Amino acid sequence: MTELKVRRIxxxxxxxxxxxxxxxxxxxxxNCVAWHVPTWDGWDQRSAEQNRSLRDELFSRGEFxxxxxxxxxxxxxWCQAGPRDRLPKLLSSFGLIPEPGTWAITCMVIIPSSRGxxxxxxxxxxxxxxxxxxxxxxxxxxxxxxxxxxxxxxxLGPLQAYEKAGFRKMGxxxxxxxxxxxxxxxxxKGSQT
Length: 193
Hints:
- The protein is of the alpha+beta class.
- The protein has one domain: 3-Layer(aba) Sandwich (Aminopeptidase), CATH 3.40.630.30.
- 25% of the residues lie in helices and 24% in strands.
- It contains 5 helices and 7 strands, in the order βααββαβαβαββ.
- The protein has helices at 14-20, 48-60, 88-94, 119-134, 159-164, and strands spanning 4-8, 66-71, 74-83, 102-110, 138-141, 168-173, 176-181.
- Strands 1-2-3-4-5-7-6 form a 7-stranded mixed sheet, sandwiched between helices.
- A hairpin with a 2-residue loop joins strand 6 and strand 7 (176-181).
- The longest helix is centred in the middle third of the chain and has 16 residues, at 119-134.
- The protein is globular, with a radius of gyration of 16 Å.
- The termini are far apart.
């Protein structure tokens, strides 16, 4: 039986991040910096080296913004997640208003050799457990409702995986589903934000 574990990215796990985001894994271009680049203009013209350099810069200033998935001790997945309002491009892209305390899942990848095994939903469940322990009360995600046959188009995470993990569809933002989960119970006043 395969053992799955999730770990929040930290300085010691940077090499595992780059194992997932490597040419050998088929995921060596983006390095999960899309939301950190100010605009989509010219995004597809950026090189893997530019994206790696920006990711190195993010790590050097303490931006540890996600979780790694391990299968039998081997890093096989990445999920970018953190406070939603830290990413102005995310807010503007989806027409969102600031909401302090809300977290967002903004990228998800499983290396090609581990796809097709239902790992995305399991990964999300493990992340939600971590977030509950951390006291996070609300998390959003914005998966495409239909990304065709290209797994590369599922970089926001597959809609079905969010549904299996217990996220609820609360509407649409710019044609994408607005999925919401409440991993921690609301505070004493009944607020969920």
